[in-house]
Amino acid sequence: MTYSTRLHKAILHSAGVYYGGQRMNFNPILQPACSQRVHITLSTHECGGLSERDINLASFIEQVAATLS
C-alpha cells in the first residue's frame, strides 16, 4: 500500500499505523518516501505471505487513512 498525502498527514498516518500494529502485537514495515508518501509492507514470516493478522491490520490502516482524508 502506498498513500500520498501532505507531510503532516503522512506522519500522523505512520504513527497511527505503528500504534495499531503494536496493539495487535504486529510490526508493520513503514517506509516514508518523497516526504509525502508512506509505503507499508505487511507479511507474516511464519506463513510465508499474508495472514489474517495482515488483513486485520490492513483494514485498520485503511480506517486511519480515511480519518486523515
Automatic annotation (TrEMBL):
Q: Which reaction does it catalyse?
A: (4aS,6R)-4a-hydroxy-L-erythro-5,6,7,8-tetrahydrobiopterin = (6R)-L-erythro-6,7-dihydrobiopterin + H2O
Q: What is its EC number?
A: 4.2.1.96
Q: Known InterPro entries for this protein?
A: PCD_sf, Pterin_deHydtase
SUPFAM superfamilies assigned to the protein according to its UniProt record, in alphabetical order: PCD-like
Print the keywords alphabetically. Lyase, Tetrahydrobiopterin biosynthesis
Q: Does the keyword Lyase apply?
A: yes
Q: Which family is annotated? A: Belongs to the pterin-4-alpha-carbinolamine dehydratase family.
The name this protein carries in UniProt is 4a-hydroxytetrahydrobiopterin dehydratase
Q: In which organism is this protein found?
A: Ranitomeya imitator
